[in-house]
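Design request, tokens follow.
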């Protein structure tokens, strides 16, 4: 019996058959993959080593501090070689600054683009808590800011002290940066920036922020308006811009605090005590501007008044308007609420809360201010805050023309303003009301608020405007009870019935 032939079979082969042409054996495939991996690794190492060698040829060592140097100097070639050699895009220098922040401080927008493309954190916090955008806002380089914003930097980020990029740019007066940051800022940020611009006395920034929508009546944490801050630091030109944009020169700090003019005078007195004649002069000019009566109403001004001594600011203004023959035809005469007659809608019950809304609240200034006191005769000169702003000189015991006020006594005084002998008048006058017998002390040049607040209310059925004062009485119809204005605040007019019980409150719309 013939002996069976022994067949040797290689792994992966079918017994009795040869491998097909073109088929790779598994062992060979593994070897090929391993060789390719070694080759790629060698190439990568060669590439990194080659980049490091190239950097060395340009006097760069492969170190984070040198990477930062390349970014600061705007060496795009070197930055790319560092990244090719494996340098992390967010590596920090010994001071803790990232490379992106170094590029932002140095105003290198092209380097910023390269680093962000390599994965750098665009909002990484630096020592001190500021991001690259906040650092760019400090330098004011508009192209850098634009590059960071386009890449997604957060404009609302605040550093530990609460500063945003807009606030930083405003404080430093970088107008191009403000123009980029303001359009996307919320109203509260615009208001905060305007307060900073007023504090710094930066006229251009103030104008730009007002155009962007900042409120001229914004207040800081202490209740100060932009006008008050500008007055405190004797920034007369900033005060002028704010007044032209509707700032209220008669506003007071808190309930009974100083007006902007009084704040400027306080700065002047401090400067005099410290013998700083330059600041004293600036503060005096600022106070003079703030005490100056507002100009006569222009063609576009809407004024609301009952008589020339009873002026309420219109919807587009904040100060009493000057009334003269040329102005009067453009103003609307407002009816008094006292004893006013009403035509009630046939389908409505006489409920004031449904018929009226509060439009404006004002605590009026007295209709004149004290200009000077004669040092020998004690005669006092006043200026009207209405009409042609006439000046009136009266002696103690005499009536101030066209007003119920009488000059009781006056005191002439001055304060040295400069070492060269210049003095500033600080006189006062005591006046008394002819009917209420209330007395008020007037300082030179300061408008003094009248004690009685007034409100402008709208009667909705016929869209009529009426002027309301405390103790005004009216009836909605012949059959309805008499209502009396009990009190007026910035938000409400309180009405009481004949028995003294609060019956209605007229609120803002």
């Amino acid at each position: 019996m013939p002996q069976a032939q022994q067949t040797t079979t290689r792994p992966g082969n079918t017994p009795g058959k040869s491998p097909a042409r073109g088929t790779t054996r598994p062992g060979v495939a593994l070897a090929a993959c391993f060789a390719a991996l070694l080759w790629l690794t060698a190439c990568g190492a060669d590439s990194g080593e080659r980049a490091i060698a190239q950097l060395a040829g340009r006097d760069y060592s492969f170190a984070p501090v040198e990477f930062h140097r390349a970014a600061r100097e705007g060496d795009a070639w070197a930055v790319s070689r560092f990244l090719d050699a494996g340098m992390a895009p967010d590596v920090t220098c010994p001071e803790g600054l990232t490379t992106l922040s170094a590029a932002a401080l140095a105003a290198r927008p092209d380097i910023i683009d390269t680093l962000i493309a390599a994965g750098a954190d665009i909002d990484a916090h630096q020592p001190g808590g500021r991001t690259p955008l906040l650092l760019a806002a400090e330098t004011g380089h508009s192209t850098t800011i634009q590059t960071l914003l386009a890449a997604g930097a957060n404009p609302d980020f605040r550093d530990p002290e609460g500063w945003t990029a807009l606030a930083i740019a405003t404080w430093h007066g970088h107008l191009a940066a403000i123009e980029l940051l303001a359009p996307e800022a919320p109203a509260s940020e615009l208001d905060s920036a305007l307060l900073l611009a007023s504090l710094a006395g930066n006229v251009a920034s103030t104008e730009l922020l007002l155009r962007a929508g900042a409120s001229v009546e914004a207040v800081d944490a202490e209740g100060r308006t932009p006008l008050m801050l500008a007055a405190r630091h004797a920034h007369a030109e900033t005060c002028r811009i704010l007044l032209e944009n509707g700032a209220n020169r008669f506003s007071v700090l808190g309930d009974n605090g100083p007006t902007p003019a009084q704040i400027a005078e306080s700065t002047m007195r401090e400067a005099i005590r410290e013998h700083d004649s330059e600041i004293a002069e600036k503060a005096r000019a600022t106070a003079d501007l703030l005490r100056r009566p507002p100009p006569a109403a222009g063609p576009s001004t809407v004024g609301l008044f009952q008589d020339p001594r009873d002026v309420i600011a219109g919807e587009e203004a904040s100060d009493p308007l000057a009334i003269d023959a040329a102005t009067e035809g453009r103003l609307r005469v407002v009816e008094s609420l006292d004893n006013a007659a009403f035509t009630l809608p046939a389908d409505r019950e006489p409920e004031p809360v449904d018929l009226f809304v509060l439009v404006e609240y004002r605590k009026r200034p007295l209709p004149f201010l004290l200009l000077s006191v004669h040092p020998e005769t004690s005669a006092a000169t006043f200026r009207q805050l209405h009409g042609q702003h006439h000046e009136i000189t009266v002696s103690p015991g005499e009536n101030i023309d066209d007003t119920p006020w009488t000059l009781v006594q006056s005191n002439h005084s001055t304060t040295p303003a400069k070492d060269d002998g210049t003095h500033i008048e600080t006189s006062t006058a005591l006046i008394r009301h002819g009917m209420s017998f209330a007395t008020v002390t007037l300082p030179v040049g300061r408008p003094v608020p009248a004690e009685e607040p007034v409100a402008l209310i709208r009667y909705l059925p016929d869209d009529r405007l009426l002027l309301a004062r405390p103790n005004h009485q009216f009836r909605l119809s012949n059959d309805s009870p008499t209502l009396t204005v009990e009190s007026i605040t910035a938000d409400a007019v309180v009405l009481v019935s004949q028995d003294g019980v609060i019956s209605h409150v007229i609120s803002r719309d």
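Comment from the thread starter after seeing the answer: thanks! Residues 367-447 form one domain.
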